[in-house]
Structure formats: C-alpha cells, structure tokens
Amino acid sequence: MIEIRKIITSRETIFSELGIEANQPVTRAVGMAVIRNPFAGKFVEDLTPLFEAGAILGERLMPELVKLLDGPAVSYGKGAIVGVAGEMEHGGACVHPMLGKRMRAAIGGGKAVIGSNVKVAAAGAILDVPLGHKDDSWSFLHFDTITVSVADAPRPDEILVVMAIADGWTAAQSLRYGANTVGLRSETGIRPM
Questions:
Q1: What sign does the dihedral 59-65-70-74 (CA atoms) show?
Q2: Which pTM was predicted?
Q3: Is 166 helix (H, G, I), strand (E, B) or coil?
Q4: Is 5 exposed, middle or buried (0-12, 13-18, 19+ CB in 10 A)?
C-alpha cells in the first residue's frame, strides 16, 4: 500500500521569451507526489512495490495533468528525488515503465522513450525533468526541461515522484521555426513534428 503525504500540481503557460511573443503559447503541467519510501535505510532486492507505486501515481495524477493543458500533450518527462535514507534505484523503480504506461495511456499514446532524471538528495533539492516529444525521440524542437522543487520534500524516508507534460515546443523554438517545420533538412538536426 502506497503512503502519500501530499500531491502538488502546477501549470505554467509561456507567452514570450526575451520580450518576443511566441507564435503559440506553450503550456506545461507538472504533477508531484511525496510518498513514504518503504525501503529507506535498508537494502532489498525486490523493488516491485515501488514499480506499483509509480503505476498508481500515474493513474491518479496524469488525467488531471492532461486537463491542465490548452492542447493535446506532445511531450513528456518524469523524474524522482529519493530522500537521503534511500538509494537512487528506489526512484528509478518509481519511474519504471509501469508509470510510463499510465502516462502514455493518459495522453493517448507515445512511441518514444520517456526521458527521466533521478537522484538522491535532501528536502528542497532541485530536479531538472527532461521533456521530449512523445513519438519522436529525435525531435530537437521538443527538447525542454522543467525544474521542480518542494521545500519540505523529500524527507529522508520519502520519495518525490514527478510527471511532466507539455502541449508544444519551447517558445524560443516556435519563434525560430513557427508552426510548420516542413522543409527543414535533416542536416539541421531538426525533424518535423
């Protein structure tokens, strides 16, 4: 049974960068759950309960995150911060493909690997969560990062689990390339949406 101390959701919409209005605002939504780490302070081989915790959190948070976007989700990412009494693998188990399956189901699919970042740190630590296109890992236009932190989490015996989605590429990229990337050559390192 998963013990959730709190859930945090946030939404940000980016309208401009460097004083220049974006062609289309980009909305990013983040869901975070602070859970008790049942394996804090001890080594165990079977991390199945944490795989399952990720799945439960995905089912609970992802539908809410999808509703926060202004358009369909096109990029996603995930991450975790493990409190200092745990190990990095505890966070890795939480962001296991069981969570990824729930993320894909909520946004209507996704062929690409969901990028992630996991670390062990004290409460208030910063985590950079990578975002990438849901169907094309090589869509450089969708490479993005959202930075998260929770002042009182994770405590030593907790894990902060993070899911993030966005409905477009970065505002700067939309300024450079507009809504249409047709005709951009592969040598530029940019692939169409």
A1: negative
A2: 0.90
A3: strand
A4: middle
